[in-house]
Design goal:
This protein is 40% helix and 11% strand. It is α+β, with helices and mostly antiparallel strands and 187 residues long.
């Protein structure tokens, strides 16, 4: 029920009884597409993209689900510019019983944390003036060493909020705000 995971609206069946999942439409495209359209991210935009994901991922793991395909192409932007994780067709289920430490040690959860760390590092490298920003460099160095730490996601979330205040994602293209797809195709 997280606003940061694509919502399942309904389940149907094909003629051959194959289940069909009806998912919500996520409005604004992927973070990968955003990065193709933008020269750089602001610090606050990075926080808006990553902090909710860092907070929501442990809840997914407590349900016994490893996403399995976390990255810029599976992270999309909803109607209000909020990050929404898609791509659950790659998920791996595991036993949800046990302590937080046991869940944290599940191989699928470990892979998700490593993927989150890689995504965070890549997005940090796209922050405006990242190469000369000491705080960006320090956060990348911490992330490189930390994905195997206990409760990495909670610590990452806290560090992100120390890094900057969240701000809305600017969805306009760097080339003057033209949309990626024309509003109407000529015939």
């Amino acid at each position: 029920e997280s606003p940061h995971f694509v919502r399942l609206l309904d389940v149907a069946s094909a003629e051959d009884e194959t289940p069909i999942l009806i998912l919500e439409r996520v409005q604004q495209g992927s973070v990968a597409a955003l990065l193709r359209d933008r020269d750089a991210l602001e610090r606050g935009e990075l926080v808006t993209l990553l902090a909710p994901l860092a907070a929501a991922l442990p809840a997914l793991h407590r349900l016994g689900v490893g996403h399995g395909h976390l990255g810029a192409s599976s992270l999309h932007l909803g109607a209000q510019g909020e990050p929404v994780l898609l791509g659950f067709g790659h998920c791996e289920l595991f036993a949800r019983a046990g302590s937080i430490a046991a869940i944290d040690a599940e191989p699928a959860a470990v892979r998700d944390r490593e993927a989150l760390a890689a995504l965070a590092t890549m997005l940090l490298s796209r922050v405006r003036d990242a190469a000369v920003d000491r705080r960006v460099v320090e956060l990348i160095e911490w992330i490189d060493a930390a994905p195997h730490e206990f409760e990495f996601t909670g610590r990452l979330e806290a560090r992100l909020f120390d890094f900057a205040d969240p701000m809305p994602i600017e969805l306009a293209r760097a080339d003057g705000g033209r949309p990626s797809v024309p509003a109407r195709l000529a015939t």
